[in-house]
User: Which sequence fits this backbone?
């Protein structure tokens, strides 16, 4: 192994030595594990990972390099990156650069050469932890101590740090809405850390999207007379994202709403529910989610450390959640661990899922949810 | 959807004998299906002709029929069993094709039997290559340009249209059967006619060649509710053009971005929907253009396959088991993931390790055949290795392949051929790539020349760099860091030894001293997201170990490694039974094996499974981790025997026969002394280390002699030689076979009857003789290639008593504890011992099935302390003496040879084993048992037509009787000059035909033209390119049964007589065994002409 030495330290005192594959320096964040075998580029550029040090469980990463057109946002978003081995060579007819160059270029500190499975099992047992990667402080006790004083995820409002500074038209980024779905529908999207493939899929379903900064007041969006409002995925503690919750609450019932990931949590909280921090979280592309409405099981892409607590609401005779916006069908469930993965409001036009129907990375099984959003808008 | 209520009795069809392209992966899938379906309360009837399988053990189905897998005989079983449904998707291509034939003939409908798992339409659309391509195009999926042909002319017309080179692909075949590339019209003509012959439906696809593209496979499961998951993605290191089965492959796929991978995933699931595979597993093959990313569909198999076995072992997701459950109505979400216990089967396994498969070839046994790899599969087995990186896994795979020099790591520049040569697929292409890199060629250059993806080439480059960093340094100079880096790069101890000039043992000791040793991780289907409850482990050079402490004392079973000619599924059978018996005896069974096709590497078989190469460093690492009370080395064939000594030296206990006793039996010099001491006759023999010695020994004992190396299996490099020149030729090739052991020269007992014995010896020297088998072919045909029968056909009880007595005395004297296999020859009223194998033999499963007692189980109980006396008391071993002699039925084992695969290979049988598998015929009527064995082995005996006869001079008189009989039975006889003369003089009408050397319209031409239904040709010596060899190769290519031994002829005649008579009703082996307990013995079948007839 060539590069400079690097050290990964966890809150609980565990440390791992390895080699630097990104920028020199150090970075602090919450260490999380992603079990996707391919798709590291989409992971790196997903704003939902802001403030997190992502460890990939698949040992060999960077094999096909980085193809700029596959970015899910304007650049690398993770706080740090951990792999067992980064390929020194990018092999793909589409590759623009190697993984290492992309990390270094983005100034992201990253480490390779450690037992990432050992790391994963530690995190699974002890839960998500604060951590740091450093190429300057290679003294375990000292780095561990500094991890101990770094801020954690709980209570962190990170959406504001990754959202767009000004409204813009999605068409500028992903091209015009597809004409072959009937009338073009206009949607306002709250960018809480939105992935590009969401915009691509909205456009592909004949939806023309205007993207708004996370803190845009509901009134401003309402004034735009959009046919629907979308709440995107994003990083941080949903409970701390007060502006998003408020906007969602104000718009509920006025216009069809679709939420993904953090957007799902916004809806849950707007409906008077609770969110909680999961021990290990879901980060991968192989989670089975069943939609109780159809019984169908989709293999889905996940990236969440918080979830909506199904016990927050009382249930009526049919088992629907009773909220101050009427009955809500707690419709999507994770078959692995019974996490609530999505809901459909029955008395107002709104629904959301905790996982990522836009995939990127991951299977396309849940893409039809975008058609469901379109249908919801056509229904009013 | 819960379990279907309309089904009660299900019939499972196996895949028959092991052939190239169809090995024990179908025993694995079938065994899983039988087990899980019975657990679900279904009644299972099973049909399979292969006695070496676990699935055909009486305990795995309610009724087990060991019958030929032909539509006719399977139908006979169906008539008797009246199942509600047939599960056709677990028996490979054979099971599928038989089911299709029965469905099409309308018989299934007539009997109200349903196909579950895949409908007739679906099978058709998938297997008919042109229909498949049409369906793909209609679904908007991309496929290579192509056209269909049913005649050579049709094919020739398509060539120019598509543009050469093209590939010919045959429908309803496996292992690339009947496929091949054609660079021009001439080549197309030959390839096309071969393809048309190979396809059961006489249809071929002519397709643009996309050789050099990247090749991928996805394993898909789909349930009745249309939920689908991808179990595993597999990428071929060898590009398109080399059959997947012959390619080095890796899982998961390494070089596709998520975008391209998801596109492939969508396509794979769509393929299942389009083809209409309602439930179960299928594999879909893709090719990707490395320049543009264009993806095309190559084929799909609507059934479990070899790659699904690999995928199951690679991911921990048991495809066959789940396919069976889906077929009876369950949904993926309703089935539990065995490994996590918490999560459902509706998920996609994710790997945090890398799996590499490397195929095992047997070209050394077919010198006449080309070792170039193409679209027709030639490998006979494979190893799978797991590591944390591709390099680590590949290094382990090379160790597991047990084939020097491939095993001992990475080459230096030496042996680097020209870059262009890298374009040719071969068993050592990666080593040639390594050599090219070592001589300074760049990764891109090499990748361009070989069409191997630059990523893989760079991985090899990294190992080559690591190796050159170690090369030439004294071992003592290598520090812990260096060794760790070398191990992580996949360099085995043997490789490091080669690089540093030390011994493998020295490297191991140095590593131990520096504390550089592997840890064990777990295959858990979920990359650590959920706790795993199944102890399924692999070694890797990492930080933390995951093996949990055991509750009970442990015994390690060393498996047989990759299938190869001479060491196949039979040995896995013994290992699996050992695992079962150990549980029974209160131990934890720890299985160590590297063969992904097997039942032994199913995590359900043993208490703990280690997927590791059977190399010293890997076996020792496992033993040190498990600290077993003992290690069983006598069930995995020759492989573990070689490790026994090392294990003992490292302080581990070898259960049963100790290494010294093994030596005594294996070292033919020492063994001869033992025989002399016991006054047991053995062929006069001598040892030679030089040519001169050999010549002198030969002249002392007299020609013909058998030459062979010691310490080999399957008669490797063994020959019968008739004079000094032949001797010279063969001593060289034989000597190569095992350098540090002498060449052995034995008097060849010409025309002797050969006999096999399988017995178990306990610690007190008590011996249980499972059975004495009498071979049909004379001594000189390897026991693995010859047919044999129980009860013996011609041996008298006195002779059998003597043979059993020899077994007893030898067993005691050698100090055998456990299994003992003897081979003897009976000639001139004397009984000679040819060899003793202190281990499980190829015939253990056959004997076990015939006598209804599992020899491996008996042996395991003996190894763990039981005495045969106890076991008789417990009813595990029959109390009646000579149980095998008095069975009310006859069982015949016949071998299956792969000549069809190796164009130009001579089909004459000799002392070097070349068969890949075996079948069994069992029937109350001895003639029918024989006929069944022959039919099952693919020698469909004709009941009318023309028989061509041409025999060696020494056989000319003896052939008269069977020839006459055939004539009386209404066959037309055809012969060349010599033989014709003899027959005419005996008053038998015969048509004369020209020898190959005489005219163009000769016998070979007539065979090819299909004018001949049976060929009888007994050769003398083994000179290639003679008339004889031409005749035999012609019949092999034309698929005409060809009998090359006199006893074989008598047997065939007997078989034909029976086939012309009334068919007998098939019986399950459970019924046969029940009858054996009571029923009286029958008259034994005799092959030799009744007195009076013949000479
Ligand atoms: N159009 C083609 N051009 C080049 N190679 C091909 C083509 N089609 C198939 N092959 C090669 O032939 C092999 C066998 O083809 P396949 O259809 O998979 O046969 P089988 O059904 O026996 O597996 C494939 O693994 C692939 O390497
Ligand atoms: N002296 C001999 N005379 C006749 N045939 C022999 C003799 N020695 C060996 N053979 C034949 O060669 C075959 C292989 O020999 P064997 O010692 O069994 O080798 P392997 O160890 O490979 O089984 C035997 O099955 C037998 O048919
Ligand atoms: Mg294939
Ligand atoms: Mg033998």
Assistant:
């Amino acid at each position: 192994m060539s590069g400079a030495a690097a050290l990964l330290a966890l809150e609980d005192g565990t440390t791992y030595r390895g080699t630097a594959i990104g920028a020199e320096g150090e970075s602090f964040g919450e260490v999380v594990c992603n079990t996707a075998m391919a798709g590291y580029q989409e992971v790196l550029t997903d704003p939902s990972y802001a403030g997190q040090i992502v460890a990939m469980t698949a040992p060999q990463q960077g094999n096909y390099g980085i193809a700029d057109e596959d970015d899910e946002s304007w650049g690398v978003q993770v706080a740090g990156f951990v792999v067992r081995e980064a390929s020194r060579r990018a092999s793909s007819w589409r590759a623009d650069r190697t993984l290492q160059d992309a990390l270094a270029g983005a100034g992201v500190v990253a480490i390779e050469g450690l037992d990432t499975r050992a790391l994963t099992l530690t995190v699974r047992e002890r839960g998500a932890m604060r951590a740091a990667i450093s190429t300057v402080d290679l003294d375990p006790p000292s780095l561990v101590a500094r991890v101990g004083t770094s801020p954690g995820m709980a209570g962190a409002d990170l959406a504001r740090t990754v959202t767009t500074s000004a409204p813009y038209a999605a068409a500028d980024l992903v091209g015009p809405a597809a004409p072959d779905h009937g009338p073009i529908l206009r949607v306002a999207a709250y960018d809480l850390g939105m992935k590009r493939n969401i915009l691509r899929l909205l456009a592909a379903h004949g939806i023309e999207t205007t993207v708004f900064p996370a803190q845009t007041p509901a009134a401003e969006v309402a004034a735009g007379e959009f046919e629907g409002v979308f709440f995107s995925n994003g990083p941080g503690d949903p409970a701390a994202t007060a502006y998003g919750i408020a906007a969602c609450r104000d718009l509920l019932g006025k216009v069809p709403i679709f939420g993904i990931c953090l957007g799902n949590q916004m809806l849950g909280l707007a409906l008077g529910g609770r969110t909680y921090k999961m021990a290990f979280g879901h980060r991968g592309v192989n989670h089975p989610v069943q939609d109780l409405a159809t019984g169908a099981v989709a293999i889905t892409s996940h990236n969440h450390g918080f979830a909506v607590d199904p016990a927050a609401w009382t249930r009526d005779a049919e088992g629907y959640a009773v909220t101050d916006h009427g009955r809500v069908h707690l419709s999507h469930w994770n078959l692995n661990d019974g996490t609530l993965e999505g809901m459909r409001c029955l008395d107002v036009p709104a629904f959301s899922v905790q996982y990522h129907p836009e995939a990127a990375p991951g299977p396309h099984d849940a893409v039809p949810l975008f058609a469901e959003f379109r249908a919801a808008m056509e229904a009013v | 959807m819960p379990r279907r209520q309309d089904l009660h009795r299900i019939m499972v069809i196996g895949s028959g004998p092991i052939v190239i392209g169809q090995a024990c992966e179908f025993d694995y899938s079938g065994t899983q299906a039988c087990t899980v379906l019975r657990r679900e309360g279904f009644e299972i009837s099973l049909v399979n002709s292969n006695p070496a399988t676990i699935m055909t053990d009486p305990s795995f189905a309610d009724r087990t029929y060991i019958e030929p897998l032909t539509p006719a005989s399977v139908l006979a079983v169906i008539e008797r069993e009246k199942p509600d449904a047939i599960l056709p998707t677990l028996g490979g291509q054979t099971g599928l094709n038989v089911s299709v034939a029965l469905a099409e003939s309308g018989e299934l409908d007539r009997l109200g039997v349903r196909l579950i798992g895949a409908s007739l339409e679906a099978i058709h659309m998938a297997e008919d290559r042109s229909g498949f391509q049409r369906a793909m195009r209609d679904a908007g999926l991309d496929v290579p340009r192509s056209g269909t042909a049913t005649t050579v002319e049709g094919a020739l017309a398509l060539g120019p249209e598509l543009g050469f080179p093209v590939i010919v692909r045959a429908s309803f075949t496996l292992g690339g059967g009947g496929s091949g590339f054609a660079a021009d019209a001439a080549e197309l003509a030959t390839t096309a006619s071969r393809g048309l012959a190979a396809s059961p439906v006489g249809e071929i696809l002519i397709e643009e060649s996309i050789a050099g593209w990247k090749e991928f496979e996805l394993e898909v499961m789909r349930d009745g509710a249309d939920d689908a998951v991808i179990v595993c993605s597999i990428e071929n290191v060898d590009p398109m053009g080399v059959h997947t089965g012959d390619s080095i492959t890796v899982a998961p796929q390494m070089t596709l971005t998520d975008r391209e991978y998801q596109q492939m995933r969508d396509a794979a699931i769509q393929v299942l929907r389009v083809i209409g595979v309602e439930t179960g597993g299928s594999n879909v093959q893709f090719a990707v253009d490395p320049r543009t990313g264009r993806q095309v569909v190559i084929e799909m198999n609507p059934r479990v396959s070899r790659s699904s076995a690999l995928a199951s072992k690679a991911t921990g997701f048991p495809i066959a088991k789940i396919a069976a459950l889906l077929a009876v109505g369950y949904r993926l979400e309703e089935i539990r993931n065995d490994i996590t216990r918490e999560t459902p089967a509706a998920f996609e396994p994710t790997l945090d390790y890398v799996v590499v498969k490397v195929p095992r070839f047997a070209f050394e046994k077919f010198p006449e055949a080309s070792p170039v790899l193409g679209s027709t599969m030639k490998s006979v087995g494979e190893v799978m290795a797991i590591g944390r990186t591709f390099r680590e896994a590949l290094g382990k795979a090379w160790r597991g392949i047990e084939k020097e020099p491939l095993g001992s790591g990475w080459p230096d520049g030496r042996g680097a051929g020209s870059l262009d040569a890298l374009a040719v697929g071969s068993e050592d292409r990666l080593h040639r790539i390594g050599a090219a890199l070592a001589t300074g060629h760049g990764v891109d250059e090499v990748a361009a020349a070989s069409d191997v993806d630059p990523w893989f080439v760079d991985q090899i480059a990294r190992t080559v760099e690591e190796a050159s960093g170690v090369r030439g340094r004294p071992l003592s100079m290598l520090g812990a860091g260096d060794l760790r880096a070398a191990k992580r790069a996949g360099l085995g101890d043997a490789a490091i030894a080669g690089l540093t000039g030390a011994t493998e043992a020295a490297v191991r000791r140095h590593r131990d001293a520096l504390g550089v040793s592997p840890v064990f991780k777990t295959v858990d289907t979920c990359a650590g997201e959920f706790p795993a409850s199944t102890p399924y482990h692999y070694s890797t050079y990492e930080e933390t170990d995951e093996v949990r402490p055991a509750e009970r004392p442990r015994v390690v079973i060393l498996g047989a490694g990759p299938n190869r000619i001479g060491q196949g599924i039979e040995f896995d059978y013994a290992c699996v039974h050992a695992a079962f018996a150990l549980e029974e005896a209160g131990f934890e069974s720890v299985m160590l094996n590297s063969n992904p096709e097997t039942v032994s590497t199913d995590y359900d078989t043993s208490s703990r499974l280690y997927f590791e190469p059977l190399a010293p460093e890997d076996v020792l690492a496992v033993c040190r981790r498990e600290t077993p009370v003992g290690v069983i080395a006598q069930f995995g064939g020759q492989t573990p025997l070689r490790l026994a000594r090392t294990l003992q030296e490292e302080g581990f206990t070898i259960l049963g026969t100790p290494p010294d006793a093994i030596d005594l039996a294996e070292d033919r010099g020492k063994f001869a002394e033992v025989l002399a001491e016991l006054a047991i006759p053995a062929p006069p023999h001598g040892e030679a280390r030089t040519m001169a010695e050999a010549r002198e020994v030969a002249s002392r004992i007299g020609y013909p002699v058998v030459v062979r190396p010691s310490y080999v299996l399957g008669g490797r490099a063994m020959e019968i030689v008739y004079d000094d020149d032949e001797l010279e030729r063969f001593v060289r090739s034989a000597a190569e076979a095992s350098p540090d052991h002498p060449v052995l020269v034995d008097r060849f007992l010409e025309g002797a009857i050969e006999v096999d014995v399988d017995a178990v010896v306990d610690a007190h020297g008590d011996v249980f003789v499972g059975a004495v088998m009498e071979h049909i072919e004379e001594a000189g045909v390897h026991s693995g290639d010859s047919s044999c029968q129980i009860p013996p056909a011609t041996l008298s009880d006195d002779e059998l008593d003597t043979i059993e007595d020899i077994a007893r005395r030898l067993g005691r004297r050698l100090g055998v504890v456990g299994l003992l296999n003897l081979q003897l020859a009976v000639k001139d009223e004397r009984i000679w011992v040819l060899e003793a194998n202190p281990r499980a033999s190829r015939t253990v499963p056959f004997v076990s099935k015939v006598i209804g007692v599992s020899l491996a189980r008996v042996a395991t109980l003996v190894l763990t302390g039981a005495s045969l006396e106890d076991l008789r008391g417990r009813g595990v071993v029959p109390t009646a003496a000579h149980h095998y002699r008095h069975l009310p039925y006859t069982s015949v084992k016949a071998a299956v040879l792969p000549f069809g695969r190796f164009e130009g290979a001579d089909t004459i049988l000799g002392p070097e084993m070349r068969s890949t598998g075996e079948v069994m015929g069992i029937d109350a009527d001895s003639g029918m048992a024989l006929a069944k064995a022959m039919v099952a082995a693919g020698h469909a005996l004709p009941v009318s037509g023309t028989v061509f006869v041409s025999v060696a001079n020494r056989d000319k008189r003896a052939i008269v009787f069977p020839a006459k009989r055939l004539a009386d039975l209404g066959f037309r006889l055809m012969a060349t000059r010599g033989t014709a003369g003899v027959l005419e003089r005996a008053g038998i009408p015969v048509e004369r035909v020209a020898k190959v050397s005489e005219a163009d319209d000769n016998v070979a031409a007539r065979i090819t033209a299909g004018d001949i239904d049976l060929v009888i040709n007994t050769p003398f010596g083994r000179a290639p390119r003679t008339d004889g060899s031409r005749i035999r190769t012609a019949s092999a290519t034309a698929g005409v049964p060809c009998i090359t031994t006199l006893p074989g002829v008598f047997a065939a005649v007997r078989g034909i007589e029976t086939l012309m008579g009334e068919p007998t009703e098939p019986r399950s082996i459970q019924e046969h065994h029940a009858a054996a307990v009571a029923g009286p013995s029958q008259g034994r079948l005799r092959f030799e002409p009744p007195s009076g007839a013949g000479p």
